Structure to design on (1462 residues):
């Protein structure tokens, strides 16, 4: 079993060799602390040249490709590639994340730039539109977004001298952007005659609207405004990749290997040619420059970083080197020294010192290198090449010993034997050649057992055997040196292997996930002494396993950093370090190995260092070693809450039924009934799958939820008030710290969270758009301004909201497994915890993201399933209750200790000022002191402790406790059985509310002359409820099986109950004791009815399509009704007790004669004339109108007619209760509908005098009472809608004009694309308001004579008289005839106290001067304007907004009407 746990040792990233120079630019800077920041693979590196030390930022999970430095030079922003790439803003000093920006870009983030004061960040995506996005990065909020260009954008920069201006450049373009409001508007740079149109690679902004840019041909283009004013030709001999501005001037670096320095006016100062220096070489290409004071940093294409001191510019200092572009596969470690050798497709072999963290030797070969090995004495280095040859070099001076080519395909693996006599060379030709070292590498043997390329090899310690792995996942053994295959397993029994680098074999079975492709682990290396194994895989992950690990899916610790595949991994000779190399990122990572004993010290020294840096994680394999889940939790995790059809789908479904609607609309239909119902009382509380959903409000009322209803219960008056804003199951509830507002989250396709006031029962805010399927946990922050929520989508997304604004602040994927609870830190609003299945995580907000860290449980313990959590008396203390009955005590993210609190899971927990209260499955409430040292008092929930004033009966002793809350001297307890109890501190218990337990409720019957009803449910109970104002459960009886129907006898003394196993019983209606029982059928009894009058017969319908008729007195079956083709769903007697009406699941309406059961055929007209004792049928012409348009999707499950036969109440699968006039003839009748039940309403019944309607919900387990209100008794109230599934077309319909306008479709345009680009003027550039007297002096329609500081914006169309003649005279709009009145309203307004009139026509806004009759125009729209409004606020006089029609979105343009039309 040992190998099923992750090893207790640990790796910490110590050094990364390399720098990402290829395909990236401008990614190398000095920080304020004079450290150097850059990136390689998926790691941000901060290197201190003084201390020769590196720090790492590990917040990305794929290649980083862009980097920007904040103007204060401490914070860094980095962007990555990937399907859902994100930007991290992090601190270069602590290497901690400050903010995460996500959910906007796709593919990757190509460039980043901070603005002058560092408040905003701009990013450019790699998507097809190269989207540009501006962020308020601290909040993680996107301010603006626009498509950037059709081709790649290479650089973007804020204009540091003009606010809200940006410049971007790329393939054959440069664009000048202005940000106004939330819109980014571009203008393309005009190259004109001054320079050729070409690709611009980099740019830097200067004063006075001047922009310098570096072009692909080596010229520098200088722009003023949007026009090219001059070029500096031949600044570099080839493309200029990088340009950096500083106080002294500008530095540029190009593909020609030169760095040039320029002064502030871009006059050349000096040039540094790196190719000519000692470290230089032909083909050196500069990708990044950074000039600060007298130091210049240069990053090259081939992964080097140079530092140049200006006054010794011919002696650049090489501070970092790495492999150049090309895959890196070869890795070997020296047998006796701390050296690592690597070889790559860049044809170089390099030797690195693991102690000095430096490159100490480099040699270029003729061919790309694919593998390497060092001889046992450390003298020879063998390199396998891609062309099938191998070369042996001397390590000390890199001179060649021998070069041999025996194969055509690449050599992928070679190894020296432990005794140093042989070299085994494995090639992609599927064979291994054995060479004798001392015979100058003469071939002495060949192994040919494999059918695929050779991937890994190991020698035995005595050098007599070789084992190989190949591409077909075979493991083979050979005798050495002859190369004869060994097939006899006995021979290999005692063999000791000198090394273990094979990926197949019993000893390493556990490295493979349970269901995995066979070749995604590239490399393995075993450390026999430490009993650990390190692996490298295709997902960029380095993992530590125990060695040996025999069973598939073993646990591991994982380390991120490499971006793509990790090709090789090896232990150093003394097992102090692990070296791993990345294929595509061609970087070398050196990890420090921290063995178990050191780990204990490390934790105490710096938890930060040892635990966060390596991003280590438990395995993702299935945890079969976790204790079995408790049955209740198991059940709960299996509930999906997914619906076939959500209420949100209804409008669409109705749309699809348009044809039906049209035909129905022509017919005259009955109007909706005048009477109405109002929700009066709900029996039930959702405890079976929810926790901590029960609270006292400010006024001492109790708030909880059941079905789709939020309930506020007044325990003094025994009355309830209802929040009916939800339309599906509510799954969670949290109360505001002031105990006046409540947040509830529901199930739904795009599920919503409602925040509502418990006093007024009015919604304050509804949050949606981020949770799919449902919301399972919510919590308010201590200041009540924020709300955290968790969804039930596959990732259990966690969202942090500013709920008053309805704004999402941050979001993150929570966990694959279910999360049960989210709690916000009462002291730090940016921190929260989540707890769930094998999950306890501590989160902190970082901009638009949340950073989560798993709770550290120490070496031996396992993460248990957490059911509840609370914060304690300081910000770092947290407490969680587990599924095994323990309470875990946490400080920061460390588990300090556990306390046994309950038998079975701890479901609920509540923190008090001094101490805690917990509740568990064992039915015990426990009070604890503030450190969980001692339990002060326990209360067992037992029948014996029930106080006399209770509103019902406790179903069983010690029910599972799901919610606990304190207040008003009492403890409030919610149980799994749907009861709410109030425990007095002195001991007595009062039952306040109860309902059915988990399981569907179908059976419902009202008493013939008393205000009581009976229900029977799949929870195997039969219950009698009091419907008078005392609203309580009068009696309950447990049944052997669940039941689906029940019925009182006409005298009310007996109650018949049909059960799910085909039996039924009759019980005494008062005592619920058995009178008689029968078992004649195998299938569920679906409906049961006494005949009217004396109740002589009992009809019993079953799901095997028969109705049995029994004589009640003789207790004998006297008849069987046959002929139904499906299960029987509804049944009614006529008044004489001679005829039965039956509905079946196949929508048949059948009639049988009683008591024999002979089938009758009765025409529709006759059916209506028959007097029925009850009507619960849903079929036939009398109820044709109750079926909705979308009848295929939903069923009408139940109906019941009032005793005066005027109103039919129905319940359907959507949870609607509807009232129709009876008879409801004609299709799609009008109705009033009410939502309170969440899913299907299974049964509806009127009480004997029609004063109440009683309804039961299937899965929501609730029993609802509705008061019936006569016409005239109506205030306006929620959800009394008189709508039908058809709209009001035939109620007098519309006026013809209105109808016509309603049918206009604005999208059918041949020219639905934008013909001309849009421009708008940013507010700060708009001219100041003229004073009154200036206004008087202005002649409308001409230019104002008084010049006001700024030049006229080019918007104003003026007559160009007196200007230099242009070849073509401009056209100027002078007069527009027309006004759009045909389909617009309220679009004419006075301005300037009646001096002007503003209106619109076509795409023009028109300002008409009454005195002069002249017009001025706003012409920035490019399609018909459809609406116009004037800002009435005194601060914004003459501000107008107009909206146009466009295919994308209506663009609102703000226009100032006085200063010309801007």
């Amino acid at each position: 079993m040992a190998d099923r746990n992750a090893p207790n040792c640990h790796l910490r990233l110590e050094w990364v060799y390399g720098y990402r120079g290829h395909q990236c630019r401008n990614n190398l800077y000095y920080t304020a602390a004079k450290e150097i920041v850059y990136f390689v693979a998926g790691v941000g590196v901060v290197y201190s040249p003084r201390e020769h030390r590196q720090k790492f930022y590990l917040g990305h999970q794929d290649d980083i490709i862009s980097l920007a430095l904040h103007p204060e030079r401490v914070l860094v922003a980095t962007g990555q590639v990937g399907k859902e790439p994100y930007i991290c803003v992090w601190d270069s000093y602590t290497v901690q994340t400050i903010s995460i920006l996500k959910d906007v870009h796709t593919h990757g983030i190509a460039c980043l730039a901070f603005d002058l004061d560092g408040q905003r960040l701009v990013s450019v995506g790699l998507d097809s539109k190269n989207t540009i996005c501006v962020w308020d990065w601290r909040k993680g909020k996107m301010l603006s977004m626009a498509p950037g260009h059709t081709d790649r954008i290479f650089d973007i920069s804020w204009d540091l001298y003009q606010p809200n201006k940006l410049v971007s450049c790329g393939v054959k373009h440069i664009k000048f952007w202005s940000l106004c409001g939330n819109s980014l508007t571009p203008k393309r740079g005009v190259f004109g005659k001054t320079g050729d149109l070409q690709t611009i690679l980099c740019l830097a902004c200067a004063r006075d609207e001047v922009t310098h840019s570096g072009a692909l041909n080596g010229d520098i283009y200088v722009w003023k405004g949007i026009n090219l004013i001059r070029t500096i030709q031949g600044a570099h001999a080839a493309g200029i990749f990088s340009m950096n501005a500083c106080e002294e001037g500008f530095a540029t670096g190009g593909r020609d290997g030169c760095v040039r320095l320029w002064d502030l006016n871009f006059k050349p100062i000096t040039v540094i040619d790196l190719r000519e220096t000692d470290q230089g070489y032909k083909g050196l290409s500069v990708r990044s420059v950074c000039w600060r004071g007298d130091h210049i940093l240069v990053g090259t294409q081939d992964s080097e970083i140079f530092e140049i001191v200006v006054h010794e510019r011919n002696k650049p200092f090489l501070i970092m080197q790495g492999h150049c572009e090309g895959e890196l596969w070869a890795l070997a470690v020296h047998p006796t020294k701390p050296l690592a050798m690597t070889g790559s497709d860049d044809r170089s072999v390099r030797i690195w010192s693991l102690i000095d963290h430096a490159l100490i030797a480099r040699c270029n070969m003729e061919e790309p290198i694919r593998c390497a090995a060092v001889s046992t004495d450390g003298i020879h280095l063998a390199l396998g090449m891609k062309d099938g040859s191998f070369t042996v070099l001397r390590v000390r001076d890199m001179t060649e010993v021998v070069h041999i080519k025996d194969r055509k395909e690449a050599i992928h693996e070679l190894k020296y034997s432990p005794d140093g006599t042989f070299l085994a060379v494995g090639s992609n030709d599927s064979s291994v050649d054995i060479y004798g070292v001392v015979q100058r590498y003469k071939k002495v043997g060949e192994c040919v057992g494999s059918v695929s390329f050779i991937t890994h090899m190991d020698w035995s310690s005595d050098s007599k055997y070789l084992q190989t792995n190949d591409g077909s996942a075979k493991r083979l053994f050979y005798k050495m040196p002859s190369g004869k295959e060994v097939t006899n397993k006995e021979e290999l029994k005692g063999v000791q292997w000198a090394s273990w680098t094979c990926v197949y074999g019993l000893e390493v079975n556990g490295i493979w996930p349970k269901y995995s492709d066979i070749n995604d682990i590239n490399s393995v290396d075993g450390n026999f002494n430490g009993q650990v194994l390190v692996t490298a895989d295709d997902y960029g992950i380095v993992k530590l396993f125990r060695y040996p690990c025999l069973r598939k899916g073993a646990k591991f610790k994982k380390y991120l950093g490499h971006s793509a595949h990790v090709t090789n991994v090896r232990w150093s000779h003394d097992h102090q370090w692990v070296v791993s190399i990345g294929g595509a990122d061609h970087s070398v990572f050196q990890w420090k190995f921290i063995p178990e004993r050191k780990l204990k010290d490390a934790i105490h020294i710096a938890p930060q260092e040892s635990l966060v840096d390596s991003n280590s994680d438990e395995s993702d394999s299935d945890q079969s070693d976790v204790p079995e889940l408790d049955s209740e939790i198991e059940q709960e995790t299996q509930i999906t809450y997914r619906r076939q059809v959500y209420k949100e789908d209804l409008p669409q479904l109705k749309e699809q039924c348009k044809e039906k609607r049209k035909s129905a609309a022509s017919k005259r239909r009955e109007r909706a009934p005048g009477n109405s119902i109002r929700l009066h009382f709900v029996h039930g509380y959702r405890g079976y799958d929810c926790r901590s959903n029960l609270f006292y409000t400010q006024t001492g009322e109790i708030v909880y939820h059941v079905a789709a209803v939020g309930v506020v219960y007044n325990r003094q008056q025994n009355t309830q008030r209802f929040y009916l804003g939800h339309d599906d199951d509510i799954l969670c509830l949290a109360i505001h710290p002031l105990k006046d507002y409540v947040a509830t989250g529901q199930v739904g396709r795009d599920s919503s969270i409602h925040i509502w006031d418990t006093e007024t029962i009015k919604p304050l805010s509804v949050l949606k758009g981020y949770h799919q399927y449902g919301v399972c946990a919510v919590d308010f922050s201590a200041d009540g301004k924020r709300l955290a929520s968790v969804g039930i989508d596959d990732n259990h997304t966690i969202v942090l909201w500013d709920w008053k604004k309805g704004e999402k602040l941050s979001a993150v994927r929570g966990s694959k497994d279910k999360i049960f609870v989210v709690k916000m830190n009462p002291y730090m609003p940016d921190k929260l915890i989540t707890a769930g299945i094998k999950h306890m995580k501590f989160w902190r907000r970082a901009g638009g993201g949340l950073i989560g860290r798993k709770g550290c449980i120490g070496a031996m313990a396992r993460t248990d399933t957490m059911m509840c959590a609370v914060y304690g008396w300081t910000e770092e203390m947290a407490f969680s209750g587990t599924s095994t009955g323990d309470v875990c005590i946490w400080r920061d993210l460390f588990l300090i200790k556990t306390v046994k609190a309950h038998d079975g899971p701890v479901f609920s927990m509540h923190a008090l000022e001094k101490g805690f209260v917990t509740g568990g499955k064992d039915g015990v409430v426990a009070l604890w002191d503030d450190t969980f040292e001692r339990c002060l008092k326990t209360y067992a929930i037992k029948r014996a402790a029930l106080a006399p004033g209770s509103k019902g009966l406790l179903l069983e002793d010690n029910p599972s406790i799901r919610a606990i809350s304190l207040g008003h001297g009492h403890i409030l307890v919610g149980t799994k059985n749907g009861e709410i109890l109030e425990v007095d501190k002195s001991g007595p218990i009062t039952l306040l509310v109860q309902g059915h337990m988990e399981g569907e409720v179908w059976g419902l019957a009202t008493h013939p002359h008393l205000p009581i009803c009976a229900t029977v449910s799949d929870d195997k109970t039969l219950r009698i409820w009091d419907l008078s104002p005392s609203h309580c459960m009068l009696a309950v009886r447990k049944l052997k099986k669940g039941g689906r129907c029940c019925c009182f006898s006409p005298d009310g003394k007996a109650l018949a109950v049909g059960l799910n196993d085909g039996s039924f019983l009759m019980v005494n209606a008062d005592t619920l004791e058995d009178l008689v029982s029968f078992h004649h059928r195998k299938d569920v009894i679906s409906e049961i009815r006494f005949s009217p009058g004396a109740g002589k017969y009992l009809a019993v319908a079953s799901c095997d399509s028969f109705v049995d008729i029994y004589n009640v007195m003789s207790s004998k079956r006297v008849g069987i009704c046959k002929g139904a083709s499906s299960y029987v769903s509804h049944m009614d007697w006529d008044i004489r007790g001679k005829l039965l009406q039956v509905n079946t699941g196949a929508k048949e309406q059948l009639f049988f004669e009683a008591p024999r059961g002979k089938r009758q055929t009765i025409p529709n007209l006759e059916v209506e004339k028959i007097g029925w004792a009850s009507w619960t049928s849903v079929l036939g012409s009398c109820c044709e109108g109750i079926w909705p348009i979308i009848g295929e999707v939903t069923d009408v499950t139940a109906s019941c007619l009032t005793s005066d036969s005027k109103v039919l109440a129905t319940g359907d699968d959507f949870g609607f209760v509807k009232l129709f006039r009876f008879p409801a003839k004609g299709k799609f009748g009008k109705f009033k509908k009410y939502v309170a039940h969440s899913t299907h309403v299974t049964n509806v019944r009127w009480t004997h005098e029609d004063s109440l309607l009683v309804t039961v919900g299937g899965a929501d387990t609730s029993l609802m009472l509705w008061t019936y209100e006569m016409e005239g008794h109506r205030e306006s109230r929620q959800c009394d809608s008189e709508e039908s599934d058809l709209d009001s077309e035939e109620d007098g319909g519309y006026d013809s004009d209105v109808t016509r306008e309603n049918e206009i479709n604005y999208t059918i345009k041949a020219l639905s694309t934008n013909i001309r680009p849009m421009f708008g003027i940013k507010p700060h550039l708009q001219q100041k308001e003229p004073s009154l007297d200036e206004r008087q002096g202005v002649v409308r329609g001409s230019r104002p004579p008084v010049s006001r500081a700024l030049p006229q914006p080019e918007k104003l169309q003026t007559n160009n008289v007196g200007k230099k003649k242009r070849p073509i005279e401009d056209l100027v709009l002078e007069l527009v005839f027309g006004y759009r009145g045909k389909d617009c309203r309220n679009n004419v307004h006075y301005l300037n106290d009646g001096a002007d009139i503003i209106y619109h026509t076509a795409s023009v806004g028109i300002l008409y001067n009454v005195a002069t009759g002249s017009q001025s125009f706003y012409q920035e729209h490019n399609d018909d304007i459809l609406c116009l409004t004037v800002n009435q606020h005194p601060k914004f006089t003459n501000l107008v907004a107009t909206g146009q029609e466009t295919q994308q979105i209506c663009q609102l343009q703000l226009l100032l009407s006085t200063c010309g039309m801007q």
